[in-house]
């Protein structure tokens, strides 16, 4: 990032008072990590991951985790600290973030997982863990079957094209006998009031973002994504959340010979664009009062 670019970006930001937590949300490939690092270097603080794919220790390149060089420029927490087969949920993340809000260093919480931010600033229902047998049953069902088993009020609150969200709602009802919407309505107060933070959400030009997504996946391939995925081939289990990271199933299919590299690149790019579209829609609906930043101008 050149100095004029740094200066221009800093001028576009809202005031950042000493010690105040900074929240940075936005779609994939929009430049969130670079902004977090810039803020950490300019104003001080520790960068805290809020991206569900970047918690896994097996994925650095394919999840676009900050590089080792970037991590050396400022403290980074909750990146690559979870094994590929370890259970990790929004609740786990929230429990890990709580002590970071009061340990003295300004947290700069950055990522694209909207549920992490909503749990942090809106509260999270204390839902019991899902028994393994119920999860196994849910894994075997089609998306339409799962949707049919979820109440209308819950369906109105979630992205019904996102299997993970629908399956979670199905599992909650079958494990507890209560609809997810009921649990949400009895949510305790949030651990962090967004009014006491500097909340930033990326709202960038659509075509600019699509172009970046295409270039970024090519860059991932150039910097070792294929080697990273191949290293996990003998442990590949498509039912595990770690292996659902965009690009992993596609490159695994190429490694297994069921897809060409061009097909894998195209499918991963399309999946990333679709994911970014869902993120943009979610953030615009849920973060209307956040400070909007557009680095595409």
UniProtKB/TrEMBL annotation:
GO terms for molecular function: ATP binding; tRNA dimethylallyltransferase activity. It is an enzyme of class 2 (transferase). The record marks 113, 135 as: Interaction with substrate tRNA. The keyword Amino-acid biosynthesis does not apply. Keywords: ATP-binding, Magnesium, Nucleotide-binding, Transferase, tRNA processing. SUPFAM superfamilies: P-loop containing nucleoside triphosphate hydrolases (SSF52540). Substrate binds at residues 28-33. It catalyses: adenosine(37) in tRNA + dimethylallyl diphosphate = N(6)-dimethylallyladenosine(37) in tRNA + diphosphate. One of its GO terms (biological process) is tRNA modification. Its cofactor is Mg(2+). Its EC number is 2.5.1.75. ATP binds at residues 26-33. The keyword tRNA processing applies. Monomer. Catalyzes the transfer of a dimethylallyl group onto the adenine at position 37 in tRNAs that read codons beginning with uridine, leading to the formation of N6-(dimethylallyl)adenosine (i(6)A). Belongs to the IPP transferase family. This is tRNA dimethylallyltransferase. The lineage of its organism: Bacteria, Pseudomonadati, Pseudomonadota, Alphaproteobacteria, Rhodobacterales.
């Amino acid at each position: 990032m050149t100095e004029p670019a740094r200066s221009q970006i800093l001028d576009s930001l809202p005031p950042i008072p000493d010690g105040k937590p900074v929240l940075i949300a936005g779609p994939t490939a929009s430049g969130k990590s670079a902004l977090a690092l810039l803020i950490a270097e300019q104003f001080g603080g520790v960068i805290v991951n809020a991206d569900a794919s970047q918690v896994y220790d097996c994925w650095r390149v394919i999840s676009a985790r900050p590089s080792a060089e970037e991590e050396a420029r400022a403290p980074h927490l909750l990146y690559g600290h979870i094994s590929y087969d370890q259970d990790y949920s929004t609740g786990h993340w929230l429990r890990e973030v709580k002590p970071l809000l009061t340990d003295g260093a300004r947290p700069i919480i950055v990522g694209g997982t909207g549920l992490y931010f909503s749990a942090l600033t809106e509260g999270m229902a204390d839902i019991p863990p899902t028994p393994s047998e119920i999860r196994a049953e849910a894994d075997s069902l089609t998306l339409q079957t799962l949707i049919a088993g979820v109440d209308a009020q819950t369906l109105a609150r979630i992205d019904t094209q996102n299997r993970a969200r629908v399956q979670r709602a199905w599992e909650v009802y079958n494990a507890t006998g209560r609809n997810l919407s009921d649990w949400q309505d009895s949510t305790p107060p949030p651990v962090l009031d967004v009014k006491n933070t500097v909340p930033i959400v990326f709202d960038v030009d659509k075509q600019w973002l699509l172009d970046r997504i295409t270039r970024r996946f090519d860059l991932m391939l150039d910097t070792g994504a294929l080697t990273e995925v191949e290293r996990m081939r003998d442990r590949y289990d498509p039912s595990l959340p770690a292996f659902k990271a965009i690009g992993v199933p596609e490159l695994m299919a190429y490694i297994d010979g069921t897809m060409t590299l061009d097909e894998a690149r195209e499918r991963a790019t399309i999946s990333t664009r679709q994911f970014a579209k869902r993120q943009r829609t979610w953030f615009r609906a849920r973060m209307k009062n956040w400070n909007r930043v557009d680095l595409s101008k």
